[in-house]
Amino acid sequence: MKAVVLNTYGPPAGLQIKDVARPVPKAREVLVKVRAASINDWDWGLVRGTPFVIRLIHGLRRPRIRIPGVDISGSVEAVGGEVTSCMVGDEVYGDLSDSGFGGFAEYVCVPERALAKKPANMSHVDAATLPHAGLLALQGLVAKGKVTAGQSVLINGAGGGVGTLGIQILKSFGVTVAGVDSAEKLDMMRSMGFDTVMDYRSVDFTRTGKQYDLILDAKSNRSVFKYARSLKKHGTYVTVGGSLPRLFEILVVGSLISLFTSKRLLVLGLQPNRGLDRLSELAEKGQLKPVVDGPYGIDDIPRLIQYFGDGRHLGKIVIDMDGN
Ligand SMILES: NC(=O)c1ccc[n+]([C@@H]2O[C@H](COP(=O)([O-])OP(=O)(O)OC[C@H]3O[C@@H](n4cnc5c(N)ncnc54)[C@H](OP(=O)(O)O)[C@@H]3O)[C@@H](O)[C@H]2O)c1
């Protein structure tokens, strides 16, 4: 089968497109024919081996994971002897970030617990955008952020995967939403329903004087005190990503602020695939329409990972495996 192979940490251009042996499922695994996959921050980090914590997890000098790719949508080709939740021919999707990656290949073996039925009304290309970014948004806004009707919400880094899915999840709650991202993405964000948009290069949202009930941050890069200042009384700030020192600061200082004031400042640790059925329900009701950058072919993956890292994409970058 054709796969994108990672031999050593380094720039994405070093990835090789190769023919490798098709994997065989173990007892509790499912062999999925990958029909579409999307690119995530985990791929950008794994391929380059940065930040350093990636090497602590995946191998100090050489990556133990040889095929990147966490978000997939596809069809079940074979099942292991103890699999009970899937049958050959089922259409499934999932996030492989805690089950060994491997999505950038024609076939991948996946533990059955990492898969859910693909939303029936969605193409594989659309479904592949959802598991990782959709659940960061859902867990951040709903499970941690506890969003409720009438609130005023801000998403920082709103034009990427998390923000473009997050705005659609928020729509069903009847809230007003501000979005912050680069100038090129603001028209797209307005068209998706953000009530207010800001270009982070010309506006610092923590200095506008406006306060929010809930802030979801995909790019935490300011001091925790600035975020606290931008929250209303009883407001909640949830970060899903940013530099490690900032995340550490939010974890430690944010907990103290949460202890001594009515404001909560939280770091989300993604629980892969938890809530995927809820995303499927929203998708089947027509309430989630992903923004797809592409679809592209498997041969494009090395340059697309670089394109993701350069932040030039809109929404989610998707690879259509059937296109090759
Ligand atoms: N919590 C967890 O367990 C977990 C797990 C996996 C991933 N993550 C994190 O979750 C985040 C995923 O977000 P995503 O998929 O939506 O990423 P994304 O698609 O790269 O979107 C991020 C957006 O933020 C914008 N941006 C860059 N700098 C900014 C700034 N200073 N202020 C405001 N916006 C800025 C980018 O635009 P430009 O590049 O055009 O400027 C881009 O549109 C990443 O930070 C990742 O590390 C967390």
Could you describe the 3D structure shown?
By secondary structure, the protein is an alpha/beta fold. The protein folds into two domains: 2-129 and 291-323, Quinone Oxidoreductase, Chain A, domain 1; 133-267, Rossmann fold (3-Layer(aba) Sandwich), CATH 3.40.50.720. Helix content is 28%, strand content 26%. It has ten helices and 15 strands. It has helices at 41-48, 53-58, 124-127, 131-144, 161-171, 186-191, 224-229, 244-260, 276-284, 301-309; strands at 2-5, 16-19, 29-38, 71-79, 91-95, 107-111, 116-117, 152-156, 176-181, 196-199, 212-217, 231-239, 264-267, 292-296, 316-320. The strands form three sheets. Strands 3, 4, 5, 6, 7, 14 and 15 form a seven-stranded mixed β-sheet that branches. The structure holds NADP nicotinamide-adenine-dinucleotide phosphate (NAP). NADP nicotinamide-adenine-dinucleotide phosphate binds at residues 41-42, 133, 136, 156-157, 159-163, 180-182, 185, 200, 218-219, 221, 240-241, 268-270, 311.
Topology, please?
Blueprint: E1 2-5, E2 16-19, E3 29-38, H1 41-48, H2 53-58, E4 71-79, E5 91-95, E6 107-111, E7 116-117, H3 124-127, H4 131-144, E8 152-156, H5 161-171, E9 176-181, H6 186-191, E10 196-199, E11 212-217, H7 224-229, E12 231-239, H8 244-260, E13 264-267, H9 276-284, E14 292-296, H10 301-309, E15 316-320
Parallel strand pairs: 8-9, 8-11, 9-10, 11-12, 12-13, 14-15
Antiparallel strand pairs: 1-2, 3-4, 3-6, 3-15, 4-5, 5-7
Helix pairs in contact: 4-5
The structure holds NADP nicotinamide-adenine-dinucleotide phosphate (NAP).
